[in-house]
Amino acid sequence: MSRDELLASLARLRQARVGQLRAPHKPLLLLWLFGQFAATGSSAASYEQAEEPVSRLINDFGPPVAAPAAARQRAAMPFVHLERELWDVRDAHGKEIRPDVPERRAWLLEKRAVGRLRPAVEGLLADAGTLAAAARLLLDEHFTPILADLICAEVGLDLASLDLADSAAAVPGGQRRERRRGFAEEVLRAYAYQCSMCGFDGTLGRQPVGIEAAHVQWHSQDGPDKVSNALALCALHHALFDLGVLGISDDRRIRVSSLYVARSEAGRAIDALAGQPLLTPRPRQPAVDIIHITWHAVQVFKDQPASDVLIQA
């Protein structure tokens, strides 16, 4: 396997969906394995070791799941179904575990399943540039820039080092979809450089600070670079919006996840946003399109749990 073949394999991970829910299970398992490899020089991990940290990643950065029991074992699916050209899984006796076995924690624990990236993959990832390009590809294809920072912190990858990677190498054939130039400035102007949720409009001299253009339907999930798919948000509310703490109702009011909990007065200020209308964009600028509001409500907002019967092969 060459570097380009590895990146091509990562770019075409199979992700069957139920109800059109995004399914970042495999990318998150891989990013966790990359972090383990960067720290120890080996990606070997038993299911018992991987279950808690990988399930937590899926719960934090993937769509919600209804049952607490399912939330605790979401790592089982990618552990079983990750492509075998990348991943080798065996039981306690060294017998290969095929991708058609049950994706159940009890079964995997009984078999004392252990997985490891293929030797050819580990050999390629030993090159820091290839590891960076592989991680950046997964982050760019499946998440937002804000979530990329948080995921890297969780798995122990140095995002600054990732950014040194050649971006052209991150997606084979140069097919990475770039953000449209001028998009962010158009969004900020449409909302008069104010957070559309709290009204924050701080500047340092003449320079706005802490105000960002946020995609409603993520760029990585084919969201267009248009004002009708964007909000101007302060850095805090942008992060909470991408994490699913904050959402938007069909009548363009702010939603706050019922799972959100805060003890301090500052933290409880988020709860006070619930039901408040979004800031209206300036004249002749479009409001957020209901199509993108619906996408965010289904795919990101952590308040309407969805079935986690996901991704077979």
The averaged pLDDT comes out at 89
Shape: globular
Given as residue ranges, the uncertain stretches (5+ residues, pLDDT < 50) are 166-171, 306-313
For the record, the count of structural domains works out to: 2
End-to-end Cα distance, whole Å, is: 21 Å
The helix fraction, in percent, is 40-55%
Largest sheet: 3 strands, antiparallel
Q: Encode the helix/strand succession as letters.
A: HHEHHHEHEHHHHHHEEEEHEEHH
> Number of helical runs?
15
Q: Helix- and strand-based class?
A: mainly alpha
Task: Please provide a written account of the structure.
By secondary structure, the protein is mainly alpha-helical. The chain has two domains: 3-174, no CATH class; 183-299, no CATH class. It contains 15 helices and nine strands. The chain has helices at 3-11, 25-40, 47-61, 68-72, 76-81, 105-110, 119-125, 128-142, 145-155, 159-162, 167-170, 183-190, 235-243, 265-268, 290-299; strands at 45-46, 87-90, 114-117, 203-204, 207-208, 211-215, 230-234, 246-248, 254-256. The strands form four sheets. The chain has a three-stranded antiparallel sheet with strand order 1-3-2. α1 runs parallel beside α8 (128-142), α2 packs across α3 and α2 packs across α9 (145-155). The longest helix is centred in the first third of the chain and has 16 residues, at 25-40. Residues 166-171 and 306-313 have low confidence and may be disordered.
